[in-house]
């Protein structure tokens, strides 16, 4: 390879990495904007309506791809485990938006940032995977961050906080199952999650139904379209650049959560939330980098879809 050819390859690789980082940052912004839109809607409408109409819009967008790749839905690996995955995905999304009814967006996102920490702990306790002392120390530090963010006391250790934490734990188990089903096509993974939330939302929506205004229907549709588009951006980002380059940028979601929470809802994050989030992010990044060195990529943070 000539010197000019090497320069060209280097520039192409650098451009791809920069594009991957840009798409990852864009996807996190879109996820955060979608979360803020969902929190705004559940102030007027039920969580069931949000799940139903949001998933409906997402499935309509995905329907051409579902039709073109319909053969991918046949002969799925371990169908019962696929069903458990869909159930967990549905529960964690429902828990996320239910928690946002009562808690600031930054608080809920902070609990979900602990997902990779829970994954590593569950990998050791449930799957009997070897976790060295360094990662155990990071896990314990991350749990301390969760406790700081929770601010446990008679006044602050509330049911909504437990719902958000339960959603985060469901999210962690979901990621473990997804790891074991990594051969499942992406379109199956994405569409099945939205089908699950659509079914749960349809069952819940009649209770406390409020007829949406035209502007609210636009927001419901936007929430679904944003979620699908953000998922595509994440997938494309991971194809353009190594996971080790782009995954750390996913933690920028806490920044957007604080910004949207303040600008849209007037929420000022509690100092304990910010300290807890910083500790969780530090522990999560250490676990991610450590697992990268061990040849594993599954500890990435993936926002609720």
Which helices and strands, and how do they pair?
Layout: H1 3-41, H2 47-68, H3 79-102, H4 105-113, H5 115-125, H6 133-150, H7 159-180, H8 186-204, H9 214-240, H10 243-246, H11 253-265, H12 271-293
Portion in beta strands:
under 5%
What proportion of the residues is helical, as a percent range?
Answer: over 70%
Order of helices and strands: HHHHHHHHHHHH
**Amino-to-carboxy terminus distance:** 44 Å
Q: How would you sum up the major sheet? A: none
Number of helices: 12
What this model shows, in words?
By secondary structure, this protein is mainly alpha-helical. Helix content is 76%, strand content 0%. The chain is built from 12 helices and no strands. The chain has helices at 3-41, 47-68, 79-102, 105-113, 115-125, 133-150, 159-180, 186-204, 214-240, 243-246, 253-265, 271-293. α2 (47-68) packs antiparallel against α8 and α4 runs antiparallel to α11. The model is unreliable at 3-10 (pLDDT under 50).
What would you say about this model in short?
This protein is mostly helical and 305 residues long.
List the keywords.
305 residues, globular, 76% helix, single chain, mainly alpha
């Amino acid at each position: 390879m000539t010197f000019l050819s090497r320069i060209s390859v280097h520039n192409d690789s650098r451009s791809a990495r920069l594009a991957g980082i840009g798409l990852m940052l864009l996807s996190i912004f879109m996820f955060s904007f979608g979360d803020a839109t969902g929190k705004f809607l559940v102030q007027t409408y039920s969580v069931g309506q949000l799940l139903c109409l949001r998933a409906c819009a997402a499935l309509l967008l995905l329907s051409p791809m579902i039709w073109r790749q319909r053969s991918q839905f046949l002969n799925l690996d371990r169908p019962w485990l696929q069903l458990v995955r869909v159930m967990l995905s549905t529960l964690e999304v429902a828990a996320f938006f239910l928690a946002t009814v009562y808690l600031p967006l930054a608080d809920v996102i902070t609990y979900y940032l602990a997902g990779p920490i829970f994954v590593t702990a569950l990998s050791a306790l449930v799957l009997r995977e070897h976790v060295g002392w360094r990662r155990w120390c990071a896990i314990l530090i991350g749990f301390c961050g969760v406790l700081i963010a929770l601010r446990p006391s008679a006044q602050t250790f509330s049911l909504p906080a437990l719902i958000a934490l339960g959603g985060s734990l469901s999210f962690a188990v979901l990621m473990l199952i997804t790891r074991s089903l990594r051969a499942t096509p992406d379109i199956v993974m994405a569409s099945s999650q939205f089908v699950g939330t659509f079914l749960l939302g349809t069952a819940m929506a009649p209770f406390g139904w409020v007829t949406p205004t035209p502007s609210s229907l636009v927001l419901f549709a936007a929430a679904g379209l944003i979620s699908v588009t953000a998922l595509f951006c994440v997938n494309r980002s991971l194809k353009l650049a190594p996971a080790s380059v782009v995954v750390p940028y996913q933690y920028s979601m806490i920044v957007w959560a604080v910004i949207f929470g303040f600008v849209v809802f007037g929420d000022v994050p509690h100092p304990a939330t910010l300290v807890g989030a910083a500790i969780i992010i530090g522990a999560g990044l250490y676990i991610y980098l450590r697992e990268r060195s061990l040849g594993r990529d599954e500890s990435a943070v993936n926002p609720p879809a």
